[in-house]
Amino acid sequence: MPDNTHNQDPLAGKATPEAFLEIQGLSKLFDGYAAVDDVSLTIRRGEIFALLGASGCGKSTLLRLLAGFERPDQGQILLDGHDIAAVAPYDRPINMMFQSYALFPHMTVEANIAFGLKQEGLPKAEIAERVGEMLRLVQMTDYARRKPHQLSGGQRQRVALARSLAKKPKLLLLDEPMGALDKKLREEMQLELVNIIEQVGVTCVMVTHDQEEAMTMAGRIAIMDKGRLIQVGKPLDIYEYPNCRYSAEFIGSVNLFDGVVARDEPDTCLVSCPELEHPVLVNHGQSVAEGQAVTIAIRPEKLQLCDQDLPQDDNWLSGEVEDVAYLGSLSVYHIRLASGKRIMATLPNRHRSHKGNPTWGERVSLRWEADSCAVLQD
Amino acid sequence: MSLLPRFRGRQLVIALPYAWLLLFFLIPFLIVLKISLSESVLAIPPYSQMLSFADNQLQLLLNFNNYLFLLSDSLYIQSYLQSLQVASVSTLLCLLIGYPLAWAIVHSRPSTRNMLLMLVILPSWTSFLIRVYAWMGILGNNGFLNNVLLALGMIDSPLQILNTNTAVYIGIVYAYLPFMVLPLYTALMRLDYSLVEAAADLGARPWKTLLTVIIPLTRGGMIAGAMLVFIPAVGEFVIPELLGGPDTLLIGRVLWQEFFNNRDWPVAAAVASIMLLLLMVPIMWFHHSQRKELEGRP
Fold first, then answer.
1. Which residues contact B189 (CB under 8 A, 6 or more apart)?
2. Which residue in A86, A187, B201, B256 has the most C-beta neighbors within 10 A?
3. Phi, psi of B263 (to 5 degrees)
């Protein structure tokens, strides 16, 4: 799990979180195909919200609808109580940081940042002051007179961020903010970007296909597929309590078992899966009916190694290690069960040698806690 | 050893166009320059020799009278100025018509885009002369345009368009428009449209985006197109000759008259030399601005 120290919801204590951006029944068709399909979403003031999905899922179209580059075919976009769906992009109090940064190549860093302020017709002194402030915010004061092509990728991103924040927008949009950076710089900039955004206090909607980026940067995430929202929630909720197969498989790795509810009690339910020798006991709230077909999802890191077969009759499995992938901090084990099903388990490498960890061809038993698996009902 | 033939091949590739330019541009130009500094005589060829050898003396005769004559006769200055004016106005008209045209082609569907581009180029596949003759048929007093306007009742008597400067402008703009549209098309295709969106996002209205982002970033295409129209338009002969009137006195026509009617080769050569000199100014400027643009972008 990536670091998620800023995932604490500042408004968690309030009974009714303030809706700052409200998207209601928004749809956008391209040649009869719905790129965004009846999306409703509420985003709170000061929140960093990520739209996460594979390419072509409609997340970029949704962002472009917010920016005003596309007009919705249906639905409303309420920003701070005003419907902006029909407002032209140049009249929206919304600024965007483009994936390619879209810095004007014929203008200096200063002129790029000043561009939006000039459109407002502010006095020169005020523009200069605000540009200076923005340059300090992103630590680019020394580069004010440079042209974009004289900057590195990371510096260009800072300028793009400064330009999109210069007008003090009500809403900041980030389109694949780390897309143009290499991996090392990416991790550095993710936290810095969040710091700057939180310092300014602007509400932010970002689009990304990178789950780690979304989990690191955003307070809440919406997973999108085929133009629809699949699941909306905090990173922890989405990872630990996926509501469907798509969201379980999209974020992280997961082992899925089809099964049938064998017994339903107020706090627990017992699911029997043909691929598993032993039934699965789930002890957190599920509203299922006996005999209902469900899918059990268990994350690979939730499986724990046991020395021998367990006396208990649920929540464990055994199989043969078929493959081991050593990743440094942990190893991924591919295990074949008696039913022929292959599952994945990750175990930390606590010792330098493989002492205590199973190896190829070895028979292992793995168990899990009753509250560590999820029941998917689709 | 294996490097040698390749090295020679590379030199050859560079040397060939230079040899071509030397042979068919520089040497002829020097000959013209030489003729412009000689005297007109009744002989074949009809100009005096620059170098003469008599009485053991090698004489170099440089006659600047032709140039002084051009400066003293207002006819030549007038026609130079009129040529520059016609070329400038035509270039501006081509730009004003060509820019929206190129924009529309770039922003059409990819399938129709190639066809529209073909339609721009297609007229160049037929003879230039035939197309200018066609304009005579359209613009004449009993021509297509006047007949249509008369039939529609918009005019009572035919408009005199043919044999006026208006006809010359129509002809030049028509003939050179493709040379303006193609570089503009390339420039607009290369333009990164996320920059246009970024400008709108930052609050710039469409016309402001055009002035502050689109035009500055397509300047190279505009200058290239302007050069391709302006330079040949200055020396244009066929269009003013066929479509222009008696008061259309352009330098190409003066040159022709000097050469073929007056048979004064030295003056004609001087007219041509000065025209080239005049054209050097925009060419140098073009060169300069292109270098600046190259510096601006890596």
1. B106
2. B201
3. 55, 35
Report how far residue A148's alpha carbon sits from residue A155's, in angstroms, rounded to the nearest whole number.
9
Contacts of A167 in chain B (CB under 8 A): 202-203
Assessment of whether the complete model's pTM goes beyond 0.95: no
Average pLDDT value for residue range A364-376: 88
Name the average pLDDT for chain A: 89
Burial class (CB in 10 A: 0-12, 13-18, 19+), A289: exposed
CB atoms within 10 A of CB A313: 10
Q: Could you tell me the sign of the dihedral formed by the alpha carbons of B211, B212, B216, B217, in that order? A: negative
Pairing of strands A94-97, A82-83: unpaired
| Averaged pLDDT for residues B245-260 | 88
pLDDT at A7: 41
| Distance from C-alpha of A307 to C-alpha of B26, rounded to nearest angstrom | 93
DSSP codes joined into one string, A186-219: HHHHHHHHHHHHHHHT-EEEEEES-HHHHHHH-S
Is this complex scored with an ipTM above 0.90? Answer: no
Q: Are B70 and B270 in contact (CB under 8 A)?
A: yes
Selecting from A69, A95, A102 the residue whose C-beta is nearest the C-beta of B195 gives A102
List the end-to-end C-alpha distance of chain A, in Å, as a whole number: 26
Q: Any idea what DSSP says for residue B123?
A: G
What are the chain A neighbours of B194 within 8 Å (beta carbons)?
A: 98, 100, 102
Count of helices and strands (H, E) across chain A = 8, 20
Residue A248, SS3 per DSSP: helix
Query: Do B201 and A119 make contact, defined as CB atoms within 8 angstroms?
Result: no
Closest CA to A214 of A160, A243, A250: A250
- Residue at A319: amino acid letter: G
Question: Closest Cα to residue B209, out of B218, B201, B200?
Answer: B200
Distance from CA of A98 to the nearest CA of B (A): 8
| Six token digits for residue A41 | 């979403």
**What's the token pair of residue B238?**
């066929």
| A14-33 exposure pattern, b = at least 16 Cβ within 10 A, e = fewer | eeebeebbbbbebbbeeeee
| Contacts (Cβ under 8 Å, ≥6 apart) of B258 | B264, B267, B268, B271
Candidates B192, B201, B222, partner chain A, best to mutate (most A CBs within 10 A): B201
Confidence of residue A11 (pLDDT cuts 50, 70, 90): very low
Tokens encoding B136 = 């005579």
DSSP code of residue B50? S
Q: Where do the H-state alpha helices sit in chain A?
A: 59-67, 109-119, 124-137, 153-165, 183-200, 211-217, 235-240, 245-250
**At A70, is the secondary structure helix, strand, or coil?**
coil
B168: closest CA among B225, B228, B56, B83?
A: B83
